[in-house]
Amino acid sequence: MPRFILWDVDGTLISTGGIGRLALESGAKRAGRLDAVPHVVMSGKTDPQIVREILTASGMEAADIAAVLPAALEEAERVLLAESGRMLAEGRAHRGVRELLKALAATDGVRQSLLTGNTAPNALEKVRIFGFESYFDFRIGAYGTDHPDRDCLVPIALGRARELRGSDYRQDEVWVIGDTARDLSCARAAGVRCLIVGTGHNGPEAVRELEADALAMDLANTEQILRTLLS
Asked: Can you say how many angstroms the Cα of residue 30 is from the centroid of all Cα atoms in its chain?
């Protein structure tokens, strides 16, 4: 049976060692000309949403935020690229990810892409720096670049798969793999299945009670996860 596997990036595939936060805060600070950057919770949110929340918390008006948001995201992308070596040194790929990506890539009928709040350039750089780029069909993924509301991203990816690859997936053929309640929410909004892993910033306790279709503390048991995704 065909499978379309849509991967979250931060907390699911990798952790950036704080470089992802640094990039977004730097972008907001420079574009918004802030003296200090308010702390906001970033987990599970899209990059545009995060930057907008930072600028709102700093006291900036909505019209001014809309005007500087593109420049803030562009600066965040520049900082992330400049700090990619540090991200590799201080961050990590999560346990079992590489083995599972490889096993899925070797399975007939499986296509993998990204579904992430990151802007497309940031998502691609994070995946590239950890050596995962060959496993993903990036063009049919969905990103914070496409919409600031994560719940709108699955239909975008499904539309791209249909238009660019001629693949029209049923809802039960699609899995979102993520590490937060927001990943589950976006899957539920589109009626597709969701595997939640406990490797995010807040750890397994933060997701243990979520009513996902499947829950794993990490992705180390390749065979078990494969059975779940392919059943």
From this structure: 24
DSSP string, 29-78: HHHHT-SS------TT--HHHHHHHHHHHTT--HHHHHHHHHHHHHHHHH
- The 10s digit of each residue's pLDDT in 178-216 is 999 999 999 999 999 999 999 988 888 888 889 999 999
* Phi, psi dihedrals of residue 30, rounded to the nearest 5°: -70, -50
| Average pLDDT of the chain to the nearest whole number | 96
* CB 137 within 8 Å of CB 165: yes
| Closest by CA position to 82, among listed 142, 139, 30, 12 | 30
What amino acid is encoded at 218 in this protein?
Answer: D
Q: What interhelical angle do 222-230 and 97-105 show, nearest 10? A: 50
Q: Could you tell me which of 63, 60, 70 has the C-alpha nearest to residue 34?
A: 60
Q: What is the pLDDT of residues 10-61, one digit of tens each?
A: 999 999 999 999 999 999 999 999 999 999 999 999 999 999 999 999 999 9
167 by Cβ neighbours in 10 Å (0-12 / 13-18 / 19+) ranks as middle
CA pair distance 91, 72, nearest whole angstrom: 23
Residue 159 CA: distances (Å) to CA of 19, 149, 150, 171:
31, 17, 15, 13
State the chain's maximal CA–CA distance in angstroms.
Answer: 54
The residue type of 203 is: G
* pLDDT over 90 at 71, yes or no: yes
Asked whether the predicted pLDDT for residue 1 surpasses 90, the reply is no
- Dig out the tokens for 142 from the structure: 């969905």
